[in-house]
Prior knowledge:
By secondary structure, the chain is mainly β.
Amino acid sequence: MFVMMSEKIYKFYKFITQEECDYFINQIPLQDSYDVESWDHRIFDISEGNYQTKHLSHIITRVQAFLKEQINVSVDLLRCQLQVWPIGSNSNLHIHYNPQTPNDNYGDWNCSLYLNDDFEGGEFIMEGGLSFKPEPGLLTFYNGVRDYHGLNKVKGGNHRFSVLFWWDNTKFDQ
């Protein structure tokens, strides 16, 4: 497993296998078409409390243990989601904080676990020009409250699939 760290993002290549990526993708109830402006039917909660996806929640403790082992950081789960980014969707640069609702809990750090690369466009972007095309099994870790991030428009091919982890109380141990 190769790890790359820029000043804003940790990247862990081949965190999970292609077979595991396919397993997660196959858990998503796909639709023939999606409203790219709506999140309805594009996000699926993964948690121990969700009876429909409880069998997928093992990935949460696996990522937590991995982050502790690799970079000595402790994280508490806020939420975890399987996400579909259909053709035509994108996410402008943003942070996970809304000054109009400062008491909403967006967590602090995030992980993205990418499940496929058979799409055009859909690159992960960060302020300052960092950009990369996701590949299956890549796990990233970044500060979603501080660092502006997003994704370029998915232009064609397949939909873009990922698992997004919203962490809270992130602590880098010495």
